[in-house]
Amino acid sequence: MEKRVITDGWRRKKGLAAAAAVLGGVLVLSACTGGDEGGATGAKTPGSQEQVDEAAAQKTSKAQITITPKNGAVNASINKDAKVTVADGTLTEVTMTSADGKTVKGEISADGTSWQPSEQLERATVYKISATAKDASGLEAHENTSFTTVSKANSFIGNFTPEDGSTVGVGMPVSINFNKPITDKKAVQSGIAVSSSTGQEVVGHWFNSQRLDFRPEQYWTEGSTVTLKLDLDGVEGAKGVFGVQQKTVTFKIGRNQVSTVDVAAKTMKVTQDGKVIRTIPISAGSPENPTYNGQMVISEKFKETRMNGATVGFTDDDGKGEYDIKDVPHAMRLSTSGTFIHGNYWGPDSIFGSANTSHGCVGLNDVKGAGDPNQMAAWFYDNSIIGDVVVVKNSKDKTIAPDNGLNGWNMSWSQWKAGSAV
Q: Are 64-148 and 257-409 in the same CATH fold?
């Protein structure tokens, strides 16, 4: 009986010793993995968290891809926002698609570190970009993003004249009409640059919240080149309304032609480079409907066009136009309100040079159908270009408003500069 008790006690002590050994092993393992004293050589125990992290790092690419705009961005630019770059690696594939699955063309740079689309994006469109890159070890990295370009409701454009590549007269201003009112005129004007190859100072003038014109102090120098740069992409012209244009336009200035209409003398002298090349008899506005005075710029040319008095306020008692001529020949616009210099076939030859009979336009002798090149109106039409200046003097009417057509030359230079926002 006593021997059995002793035996049980020995077994109990042996079990406790074994348990202590196991617990001791656990404590040793904990010390090795969590402390600074994990064995004489500092070796990592197989299966440790540090080893797992290190192994994962060895399988992760070092390439760092950046895509702009950021995922979820709205009102993104349609010109320059989209871009993919990579650090510590090279791009191997970039795809950009619109919501309807259309692929956007683009190119990876020669050094493989960047990508941009090679075409303009559409407004109010969701785009997705997926990019893949490899590091020096050949391990791949991936990045994806989705963004929405600015909508028409949240963007503005400027419709400009003259056209790219055109040749115009010395009086042609750069005129920009924005399709939405601009409240931050300084920001918008700062994004526009107009320069001349002759170095003439060029200044912008705001006529209202949607029209901005540029001109030098004097007429452009004949034979020069004018450059218009629109850098409006992303410019906030009004609260929540952004520009989308990124464009460069150049046009040439032709010979210096200025024609002076003397209403009292009923003649027009045409000068080129300061020399009178022709004197033409005219018939200007009647005493009841005088022609505006001032410097006017030819803004449109029509071989034949319709002129209806009702469209410019000349109506009879029945509300019909006092005149409605459907084939006015050789017509050139001088004002927005309807002032033209044009051919006149319905008046007798005797009025030209002797009587002012029109409703405010300047008339030159012509034939119906605009088919006779020997007529004064035909000659003047053929020898005039958009941007030529027609000066009217000695009329009983007031000077034309500077914003009535492309006629900002009727403002002094100090007045013009006062209308600049920069």
A: no
